[in-house]
Amino acid sequence: MISMSKNIIVTGGLGYIGSHSCVELIDHGYTPILIDNLSNSKKDVLDRLCKITGQNIVFYEEDIRNREALDSIFEKHHPLSVIHFAGLKAVGESVDQPARYYSNNVKGSLYLIDVMKAHDVKSLIFSSSATVYNVDLSPPFTEAMPTGQVGNPYGRTKYMVEEMMKDIAATDASLSMTILRYFNPVGAHESGLIGEDPQGIPNNLMPYMAKVASGDLAELSIYGDDYETIDGTGVRDYIHVVDLARGHVMALDQSLKSTGVNIYNLGSGDGYSVKQVLSSYESACGNVIPCKIVGRRPGDIAASYADIKKVQNEMGWAPTKNLDDMCQDSWRWIQNRGKAS
Ligand code: NAD
Ligand code: UD1
């Protein structure tokens, strides 16, 4: 009897979203094969993943631009599909080092697709971002809205890979290309063993807030309180990383049964202001978080949130966790980090 492989290549598998997705994949009977060059993650995440799942997880410390290494991994594991998280993601850094971002994110994706073709792997799930929507649009954003007018090189790498996937899918009707546009992933696994662990000073709101709450940073700067929003501060669509991870398993199930290009927003569908997030985080940590209002951050828009009807109707996915859950799980992770390995 031929046994059906349930192997799934997960690039960037030790990163924030990749690690949470690895847990969900195992929970749903898949076997993730992780590839990560550790450029923005630490090896001890692997031990924590083994602890959470009770499994020995296969991991390769490799760069996805190492074609020979990819070839031998595909040759050995015969994956059913690839979930592609590996990428650089810091907007400001992408402005200073665009060539590095294009090489890592665009060239890396192209190499991966090339190796998939060589090994007859038909299904790819790609981590895209809400940042691909044209900057002048008003939320809620639907998947049909125009993309490509993007304000920075990071966002353009995501747009370029999306376009590449569409062009390549058009040449081969047997391919299944899924593009997931994440809104703002936050929170952590409820075990407190894995979570977001940015190197240096975080750029994004919740990791920054967490470092102020834990005393590592002095105060939060709120970037503008004069937007046309509920309280003047910026509004975003925060999604719990475990809900996002579950979305990947559902996208994978669907990808294995379908062909063509499928694009989905993954967000909660609700927008929360900076002040609303602050208030929820203060409740989670039981302390006042020092903050001050400063000027707007260049490149920011007033509000961004998803229309999630498509993913709800076609995949049956819906968020299960609210803003308080996100803040509580983030805080648990921040307190456990360091002592948990
Ligand atoms: P992360 O930095 O925590 O994880 C990415 C992982 O990929 C890291 O472990 C890093 O070491 C690895 N990596 C990077 N380049 C690599 C390469 N060339 N070869 C092998 N491994 C490589 O980031 P994340 O938050 O988990 O994001 C995952 C993906 O989702 C990224 O592509 C990111 O752009 C995208 N995304 C993230 C967000 C967000 O807010 N976190 C939002 C939208 C889209
Ligand atoms: C940022 C990126 C975006 C990326 C997304 C997810 C920019 C301009 N945009 O978006 O490309 O896809 O992260 O990784 O960097 N805020 C503060 N103080 C802070 C940090 C943030 O007030 O110290 C505010 C912001 O102005 C915004 C909200 O908090 O209103 C959320 O910010 P952030 O977490 O950086 O996410 P995005 O702005 O959505």
Fold and architecture overview:
- It is a single chain.
- With 341 residues, the chain is α/β, with parallel strands linked by helices.
- It is built from 11 helices and 13 strands.
- It has a 7-stranded parallel sheet, sandwiched between helices.
- Helix 1 packs parallel to helix 2 and helix 3 runs parallel beside helix 5.
- It is globular.
- The mean pLDDT is 96.
- The site of uridine-diphosphate-N-acetylglucosamine has 21 residues, from helix 7 and strand 8.
What is this structure's SSE topology?
Layout: E1 7-11, H1 16-27, E2 31-36, H2 44-53, E3 58-61, H3 67-77, E4 81-84, H4 91-96, H5 98-118, E5 123-129, H6 153-169, E6 176-182, E7 184-186, H7 205-213, E8 220-223, E9 235-236, E10 238-240, H8 241-255, E11 260-266, E12 272-273, H9 274-285, E13 291-294, H10 309-315, H11 323-336
Parallel strand pairs: 1-2, 1-4, 2-3, 4-5, 5-6, 6-11, 7-10, 8-13
Antiparallel strand pairs: 9-12
Helix pairs in contact: 1-2, 1-8, 3-5, 5-6, 7-9, 7-11, 9-11
The structure holds nicotinamide-adenine-dinucleotide and uridine-diphosphate-N-acetylglucosamine.
Uridine-diphosphate-N-acetylglucosamine binds next to α7 and β8.
